[in-house]
Specification:
The structure is a homodimer. By secondary structure, the first copy, chain A, is an alpha/beta fold. Chain A folds into three domains: about 180 residues, FAD/NAD(P)-binding domain (3-Layer(bba) Sandwich); about 110 residues, FAD/NAD(P)-binding domain, CATH 3.50.50.60; about 100 residues, Enolase-like, domain 1 (2-Layer Sandwich). Chain A has 13 helices and 23 strands. In chain A, strand 13 and strand 14 form a beta hairpin. Chain A is globular, with a radius of gyration of 24 Å. Chain A starts with a strand and ends in a 7-residue tail after the last helix. At the A-B interface, helix 1, helix 3, strand 3, strand 4 and helix 4 of A face helix 1, helix 3, strand 3, strand 4 and helix 4 of B.
């Protein structure tokens, strides 16, 4: 017999499961359908396990390369990657079980299976246990996510893999070519380098992490070269040949070609929408020209009562953006006060060492937008806490509009910078000025003092530089 | 011949040197007088070198006690404390040299020597090189700091020491009794424990870090006991006997006495004003009943043109508070727009592991003040980044006033919490509400998400708990 819900959510990633909780908090009767990954790619095979691997890598690098700086002498050092892998699975398992707990706590009905629309107000779930359920809904939220984009003509094989195979692998190859120098490429590159893998990164754009401010990208590239990672930026992958011994990756730059040999290849060039097999055509939901689901600022699709959030909309493929889209969708559905998202101002983090964190416009983008740009940069070299940590690479840069003092963006590279953004994004969101940040007393000695110094710099009055 | 200045500053700690820079930025002719420590206790023998030692200790603890969790096997592990010490001196030297650079850059005249007032508008400097200088001033800032308070009848000896002797020591005793469980006591306790010293901490108040929220103090005590540190809280030191073999510390609790034996004692029970020998009596500057220099919210003493800032005023003895008092003093002197300090809302950090960070009222204080208190707590156990790091001890607690939603304080214990306060203090300072913090999109996965969750909790709508 069909079941009736105020809202049915397709996909239990960080968009879907958060939307479900918010909808339940607002008094709706909620169902959520998920075939495989409660908590999505993020909790199962993405952000969470990868951050456990990155912590292992950070410590592995210290014990193998920096022990002397700290006065540690080890008779021998053995790094067992299988333990790193197990630790990453434990972190993931703990959180994915947490999602189950949260669904029960919020009285959300869960369906393990695949949902396909039968019309704009109903769908059938092919349950993993072989059964079928029919769900009728007043509202629906599409939170179906995205899947890895591959190079044209390239398939996943024994030697050509994606993030997914590596995050689930308990051992690493001896050498690797990583195609794509975005966040996933540089994060896996960092982990593998720390565990002794010979790593080459090939990036089509002129720098690795090409969406970041140019100075940040260049600083990270410099640090990766110091680690022994080979960087091929501004370089195209022409073809990948595979044989029993390994892979040969043909690359070209400025008309010159070169062949990189390695044991394996990681393809990390981006994402494509996951919209097939859900019977979307039965609903009339429109996709945009690039195949993502088109939504307005309320997260509504063109079909009344059907919303979409997260990666499947193609709007910044980041877990925390998906979660907030989920909250906004649920609040709009419930006619509860809500906000809108300024995608440009969303925080963006890359968790290699040094870490990279940013939001807003890069200097170049801001100038192109016509802003009269002010920029202030404070180096970790001049920060007491960074000196104490022994991590003084990088800087904090904040940019503002010279006319009105509006914060336009911030670009950070260095120790723990992924934890330093919230003060700046809070200020940006609620229209506080650099002067108001400068007046916020920051504890000494902390890394966060660098934000205060940069904010003072925008007012023309940096103290410690 | 006497030299004339707009402002002469006595003492080049984080209060004095920052005041000098701000005064110079505002166009004043500035002199600063310092006998020994450019950068003060903080940069020379306090915050900065101790944070370098704490980083060493954090890593030492990981390699000796947690290597297995990360899959690291070491044939042998040797920890050379002399290297930790040298690293701490390098961090200190680098920053103290930086102070010299900043003075030159800002065209501030520096005098290496001891200043004594000859009247309310002049002082003589007995230079370290044997000479004398007479300085006339329109304004003066007293930034003379504080000195260690000792137990009644106890002197520094070969075996009874203060933070100063330990921060400058390149080796550690085998066992120690630390008298005083405040920030200095628990920080040195952490460093020494990590380097294998048998540590006992005796605290007169009912818990260690007694000024913190009770739940935080109890959590830290629990973690210290796990580390093997012996905690004697609610305990009085009756006497300390010293002989060639070591010390015997007689302690009493609830009428029962006990004798702790150890190689040495660290006394860390607090501070007293450093106001003697400056000829203050020639100026007419008044001290308060506890001997600190009394100031108003402009940092003015009772004598026109004479200001005081930092530890010598007894207002929260913290480096960052001193710096901001310095900025405020300089700005008032220059009749430049400025702010006032709400001492209750200043951030406070303790850099052991787990770290402790707080500002504002504890729950108990807020209730005693008559607030209708709301409190929301998010544990690191439920935070993905903390799980990835493998550091899940502790929590974030934010308290607010139920009537108006005003943020009253926050109490954090756990990984990197010293870096998480600025978002909350910014919100408190500029009167943003918990809801406005909850609407700030926090990158996933970060520790900072716990702040957002706690803020959502204050609104009754936590997502991930």
């Amino acid at each position: 017999m069909a079941k009736d819900y105020d809202v049915v959510i397709l996909g239990a990633g960080p968009g879907g499961y958060v939307a479900a909780i918010r909808a339940a908090q607002l008094g709706m009767k909620v169902a959520i359908v998920e075939k495989q990954y409660w908590g999505g790619i993020c909790l199962n095979v993405g952000c969470i396990p990868s951050k456990a691997l990155l912590r292992n890598a950070e410590l592995a690098h210290i014990v193998t390369h920096r022990a002397k700086d700290f006065g540690f002498t080890f008779g021998t050092v053995e790094l067992d990657y299988t333990v790193a892998f197990k630790r990453s699975r434990q972190a993931s398992d703990r959180l994915t079980k947490g999602v189950g707990f949260l669904m029960r706590k919020n009285k959300i009905d869960t369906y393990d299976g695949w949902g396909s629309f039968t019309g704009p107000k109903s769908l059938d779930v092919a349950l993993n246990n072989g059964g079928t359920e029919t769900l009728n809904f007043k509202n629906c939220i599409l939170a179906t996510g995205a899947k890895t984009r591959m190079l044209p003509g390239v398939q996943v094989t024994k030697r050509i893999k994606t993030y997914l195979e590596y995050v689930m692998a308990d051992k690493l190859p001896k050498s690797i070519v990583i195609v794509g120098g975005g966040a996933i490429g540089v994060e896996f590159g960092y982990v593998m380098n720390a565990y002794g893998v010979d790593v080459s990164i090939v990036e089509f754009m002129p720098t690795i992490i090409p969406l970041e401010d140019e100075e940040v990208s260049k600083e990270l590239e410099k640090q990766y070269v110091k680690l022994g990672v080979k960087i091929h930026a501004g370089t195209k992958v022409e073809k990948i040949d595979e044989n029993d011994a390994g892979v040969k990756v043909s690359i070209s730059k400025d008309g010159k070609t070169q062949v990189l040999e390695a044991e394996e290849v990681l393809v990390a060039i981006g994402w494509q929408p996951r919209t097939e097999g859900y019977g979307l055509e039965k609903t009339g939901v429109k996709l945009n020209e690039r195949g993502w689901i088109a939504v307005n600022e309320k997260m509504e699709t063109n079909v009344p009562g059907i919303y979409a959030i997260g990666d499947c909309t193609g709007n910044l493929l980041l877990a925390h953006v998906a979660s907030h889209m989920g909250i906004i969708a649920a609040e709009n559905m419930a006619k509860h006060p809500t906000v809108t998202i300024n995608y440009k101002m969303m925080p963006r983090c890359t968790y290699c060492q040094p870490q990279v964190a940013s939001f807003g416009y890069t200097e170049k983008e801001a100038r192109e937008k016509g802003y009269e740009v002010k920029s202030a940069k404070f180096p970790w070299q001049a920060n007491g806490k960074a000196l104490g940590l022994g991590d003084t690479v990088g800087f904090v840069k904040i940019i503002s509009d010279a006319k009105h003092g509006e914060i336009l963006g911030a670009h950070l590279i260095g120790p723990e910078v992924t934890e330093l953004l919230p003060e700046l994004t809070l200020a940006q969101m609620w229209e506080l000025t650099p002067e108001e940040i400068a007046r916020n007393v920051h504890a000494h000695p902390t890394l966060s003092e660098a934000l205060m110094e940069a904010a003072e710099g925008l007012e023309g009055e940096m103290i410690n530089l």
